[in-house]
Design goal:
With about 375 residues, the protein is of the alpha/beta class. The chain folds into two domains: about 20-105 and about 110-240, Aspartate Aminotransferase, domain 2, CATH 3.40.640; about 245-370, Aspartate Aminotransferase, domain 1. It is built from eleven helices and 13 strands. It has helices spanning about 20-30, 40-50, 65-75, 90-95, 115-120, 140-150, 200-210, 235-265, 300-305, 340-345, 360-370, and strands at about 55-60, 80, 100-105, 125-130, 155-160, 165, 170, 180, 195-200, 270, 280, 285-290, 345-350. It has a seven-stranded mixed sheet with strand order 1-9-8-5-4-2-3, with helices on both faces. Strands 7-6-11 form a three-stranded antiparallel sheet, with no helix packed on it. Strand 2 (about 80), helix 4 and strand 3 form a beta-alpha-beta unit. The relative contact order is 0.17. The model has no long low-confidence stretch (mean pLDDT about 95).
Length: about 375
């Protein structure tokens, strides 16, 4: 049983039983196939296609490379409209493809990019929209799809938080021209490091696979400049095991989510982000807004929790538009992004992971409740 003094981190990776992994390692040792589209790699791609109900999954080494590969495959130039409220990988992937990020504000109800502001920002230099399903909460996929089609833009979803989320009866990653996933150790489905690009057509799948393998098509033919973004057999084997335990992991996360929501109903100023009724969530994160009704500011509560050895996260803070490489962009002006700036000052993600004990969770809740008095 956990001690009252044990640290509680914002997340902790789920790992399958070691004995299960050893069995797969023995197969890898027997074949000596460790990379380059080995049997575990190919099997994981097929199983993910079935699980996610999408035509094509291409595995890559990490989530940022997934987004970079999607941007490269989409053959973009000029400007990309995106959100300032995300992890740095989103804007960095855009900038590393020699594209200019154009930030527009988010909606207060889900902290996702506002479609009306996306449309207002489109000009003759715009080539794509890169939207983020923040905390796994769906963007307005219908509106964004209609805008992208009407203006002839590519629509790419950074779905790093959205593994296993369903929206309106569909897998959330089934929307857009491309969707990208992260399987980093902090994600609810992890392969230690890894990611995937979801594509709709055979042609785009082949382009992704070409780009992730240096641009090589044969021993003597290299028609394009690519990168090395391949996933190893070890990571793929771990992913196959994670899929076996996914339902139990989501069930455990749901219980923690429900316990938090019940506990915070009577605490003014602690406002959990709502989940739409049309969404089957994965409970990857538990974000709350610490508003003016709470006696402490978000930063004061963040520091106070640390004194109790509880490590929450201000996720996302600072805004991408505040970072030195982006702050001079015209779209980064704070007057253009009032909702994003307010959310970045109020957001706090609380600990949630499958083996977070009830005792540890109530330690978090009790601390927040005591500070409210």
């Amino acid at each position: 049983m956990a001690s009252r003094d044990d640290p509680i981190f914002v997340t902790r990776p789920f790992l399958p039983p070691l004995s299960e992994l050893v069995t797969y390692l023995e197969e890898i040792w027997a074949t000596r196939i460790v990379t380059n589209n080995g049997p575990f790699h190919e099997r994981l791609q097929r199983e993910l296609e079935a699980f996610l109900e999408v035509p094509h999954v291409s595995l890559v080494a990490n989530g940022m490379l997934a987004l970079e590969t999607a941007l490269e495959t989409a053959s973009l130039a000029g400007e990309v409209i995106t959100t300032p409220y995300s992890f740095v990988a989103t804007s960095h992937a855009v900038a590393r493809r020699q594209l200019t990020p154009v930030f527009v504000d988010i909606r207060s109800k889900d902290l996702n990019i506002d479609p009306a502001l996306v449309e207002a920002a489109i000009n003759n230099r715009t080539s794509a929209i890169v939207a983020v399903h923040c905390y796994g909460n769906p963007c307005d996929v219908t509106a964004l799809d209609e805008i992208a089609r009407r203006h002839g833009l590519k629509l790419i979803y950074d779905a790093a938080h959205a593994f296993a989320v369903r929206h309106c009866g569909r897998s959330l990653v089934s929307w857009g021209d491309y969707a990208t996933l992260s399987f980093h150790g902090t994600k609810m489905f992890n392969t230690f490091e890894g990611g995937a690009v979801i594509t709709r057509t055979d042609r785009s799948e082949e382009a992704v696979k070409l780009n992730r393998n240096f641009g090589i098509t044969s021993e003597v033919t290299v028609p394009v400049i690519g990168t090395n973004a391949k996933m190893s057999e070890f990571n793929a084997a771990l992913g196959l095991l994670q899929l076996k335990h996914l339902d139990d992991a989501i069930r455990a996360r749901r219980m923690i989510d429900e316990r938090y929501r019940l506990a915070f109903r009577d605490i003014p100023g602690i406002v959990p982000l709502a989940v739409a009724e049309t969404t089957e969530a994965n409970y990857s994160y538990f974000p709350v807004l610490v508003t003016e009704e709470y006696p402490l500011s978000r930063d004061e509560l963040y520091d106070s929790l640390k004194t109790d050895n509880v490590f929450s996260r201000r996720y996302f803070f600072p805004l991408l538009s505040h970072l030195p490489m982006y702050k001079e962009l015209p779209s980064s002006n704070a007057t253009n992004l009032p909702i994003a700036n307010r959310a970045a000052d109020q957001i706090l993600c609380l600990p949630i992971y499958p083996d977070l004990s009830e005792q540890s969770q109530f330690r978090v809740i009790d601390h927040i409740r005591k500070k409210a008095k």
